[in-house]
Amino acid sequence: MTVTAVVGAQWGDEGKGRVVDYLASKVDFVVRFQGGNNAGHTVVNDLGTFKLHLIPSGIFFPNVRCLLGAGTVIDPASFLEEVAGLESAGVSTDNLWLDRRAHIVWPYHRLLDGARDKGSKLGTTRRGIGPVYGDKSSYRGLRIGDLLHPDFLRERLQDVLPLKNYEMAYYGLPPLKLEDLLAQANQWNQKLSKRIVDSVPLLRQAVQDGKRILLEGQLGIMRDLDWGIYPYSTASSPTAGGACSGAGIPPQYIEQVIGVAKAYATSVGGGPFPTELFDKDGETLRKIGDEYGATTKRPRRCGWFDALTVRYAAWLNGLSSIAVTKLDVLDSFETIRLCTSYRLGDQVLTDMPDTVTQGQVKPVLESWPGWKSPTSDVRDWDSLPSAAQAYLRRVENLVGVPIRYVSVGPKREQMICL
Ligand code: GDP
């Protein structure tokens, strides 16, 4: 394994952070390739329970170098807070770098995100992520490396800020002052400049030397800007393709793509979710699975495993294997259901329909007997209850990709490796 991408095969929150933490002990680099502090990876290890928003989940290993790639967006205030939190828990952040090309999330991005989201059904996290990627693609963004060039930064902000203040006025928000933002940028520069790097020579050398690199995605296929449930999507691409562009690794060097999927399904925010449960089973999944967002604390919508979605993720990412997480959450169920396809009137759909249609379909469900015994202490495939094995084999068969890891608890050691 030289370069491995770990991506979300559902709606996000699949447990990617936990999988990266498990794999990170054997790698040299962990690179986050897209997104910002809008998602949360919860990692439980010997040092405690950590909610990471922006910092790669490899941070707990002192020898692993962690990078935020060019495709990420960085809210410096939130980044510095996360660094301080880790350091106060005894986690070193000496090996943590930012690619100079990553865009800066400014206070106006956060304010505009909150104002735009109010009363809308999109359900963004209000961390400024949509607005900052919007500015990036309309050439109004500023990058983290621009902090090192105060004159350039002033010139750019002078151009951009009046437009932002104009938009803020539309939402009834007071204007921000150029000098205040520049003073803030100056403080960020003092604290961040030592971490700002050009990741190209670093990762090129690493690949050429055969170093092991993990590319860590945020969110999942159904929130992808192009392939997800637009407009209920994120503003970047959490796929293996996004990993190449966001981390700056040529596609031919990605040897493995691991898709992470829960043994059931959850979704936070708006948009269609065909297997969503509104009954006792949904409540049980939420309760046992502790399905509340790591960033926003919002209760997650819960439903059965949707094989059509994970199969879609398998193709679009070129998944080599899947890591199924949270199998233990299903331990007490009498019957477990599994969605194989969608029904629209008398039509059976096996390919992903458009967002509007996906909101109208009914899931075609299979029933599988539950195993009704605890799995959280199981460490090898053969010791799993036979009903759990049968369920997982059916998942594998429907998705068309082998299962390589099964996670049966949040702790590092609660992993079955096939
Ligand atoms: P990510 O953003 O994809 O990393 O996922 P999150 O961290 O938002 O959500 C996954 C949650 O499930 C976290 O709270 C993890 O600690 C927890 N978790 C991960 N794997 C397992 C598992 O196998 N069993 C249980 N019970 N919890 C898990």
Describe, in plain words, how this protein is organized in 3D:
The protein has 418 residues and is of the alpha/beta class. The protein has helices spanning 16-23, 76-88, 107-117, 129-137, 150-170, 178-192, 199-208, 240-247, 280-288, 307-317, 355-358, 386-399; strands spanning 3-8, 29-32, 41-45, 48-52, 65-68, 73-74, 96-99, 103-104, 196-197, 213-216, 254-262, 265-267, 301-303, 305-306, 321-325, 335-344, 347-349, 362-369, 403-407, 415-417. It has a ten-stranded mixed β-sheet with strand order 9-7-5-2-10-1-11-15-19-20, sandwiched between helices. Strands 14, 16, 17 and 18 form a four-stranded mixed β-sheet that branches. Strands 3-4 form a two-stranded antiparallel sheet. The model has no long low-confidence stretch (mean pLDDT 95). Bound molecules: guanosine-5'-diphosphate. The site of guanosine-5'-diphosphate has 21 residues, from helix 1 and strand 3.
